[in-house]
Write a structure and sequence with these properties.
The chain is 40% helix and 24% strand. By secondary structure, the protein is an alpha+beta fold.
């Protein structure tokens, strides 16, 4: 009787998966994972706002059945970047007598889309005298595992997202403009799909003394987080320097600019 109930539950969830069009599907452990065409269709549908035109470069079977695992290398001709993702058959999240198809294609595409924005971000921030780490520099900074102190706690200075460096005299108003530009860049046509699939994007601002070229010598100023679900006003409200009761965007921007300049002053003083 228990087996019958579990089987009925499996079919119920399977039916829900089919109707919802989600990117995982109940199956058997000896079934094939999503094909490369399946994955292309998933990404093209989920990220329609980015107008992707995706073609397959290669397919590799990393693990044979049961629980087959494939890796696909794909190229978005529209946005000119390559990304790699996997398609797997795995044990289901729920305790059901079956297996589950799954793919990390949505996250992989969003991550690659964010990476392809880096040259544009570098150019944009340079217009205001700010410096953004390149993809290669960011990877090296993350690998450096440098820590910063927050009270009695040690945290990673360079952990994820974009790293932006400023020097003496950086303007809080310019910092706000940069954050607003980043908000727009990570939300193509105002859509939060990239940020949602990245689980947000963290922007870390650091102080680098004049003439210093070693980015690992930077001091933490503050971080600014972008979330897919938030409009610009909510983004400002969720970040440092805001008042929980304030709703006026102009006031929120002014408060953020002031907070940035205060944190920059503290970082400059701490570097001496």
């Amino acid at each position: 009787m228990k087996n019958i109930s579990r089987l009925c539950a499996a079919f119920a969830v399977l039916g829900t998966s089919i109707l919802s069009g989600c990117s995982s599907m109940l199956t058997t452990e000896d079934s094939a994972p999503y094909t490369v065409d399946d994955v292309i269709n998933i990404v093209t549908s989920d990220f329609a706002v980015c107008k992707p035109h995706i073609v397959s470069i290669s397919t590799e079977v990393e693990k044979e059945k049961p629980f087959q695992r494939n890796t696909y290398v794909l190229y978005d001709e529209t946005n000119d970047f390559t990304f790699s993702c996997n398609a797997v058959v795995r044990r289901p999240t729920l305790p059901l007598p079956c297996a589950q198809r799954d793919t990390n294609a949505a996250f992989a595409y969003a991550e690659a889309y964010a990476a392809h924005l880096n040259p544009q971000i570098c150019a944009m921030t340079a217009q205001y005298g700010f410096r953004t780490a390149t993809r290669e520099e960011s990877a090296a900074l993350i690998q450096s595992k440098i820590k910063r102190k927050q009270g009695n706690t040690e945290l990673s200075l360079f952990d994820e997202g974009d790293f932006i460096f400023v020097s003496d005299g950086a303007s809080g108003a310019d910092m706000v403009t940069i954050c607003r530009n980043l908000y727009d860049m990570y939300r193509p046509e105002g859509d939060g799909v990239i940020l949602s699939n990245l689980y947000g994007r963290k922007i870390t601002f650091c102080y680098l003394p004049p003439g210093e070229e070693d980015l690992t010598k930077a001091r933490f100023i503050l971080f600014f987080t972008l979330e897919g679900r938030n409009d610009w006003a909510a983004t400002l409200s969720d970040n440092p320097g805001s008042s929980s009761n304030e709703k006026d965007v102009a006031v929120l921007e002014k408060n953020l600019a002031h907070f940035f300049e205060k944190c920059l002053h503290d970082a400059v003083q701490g570097s001496h």
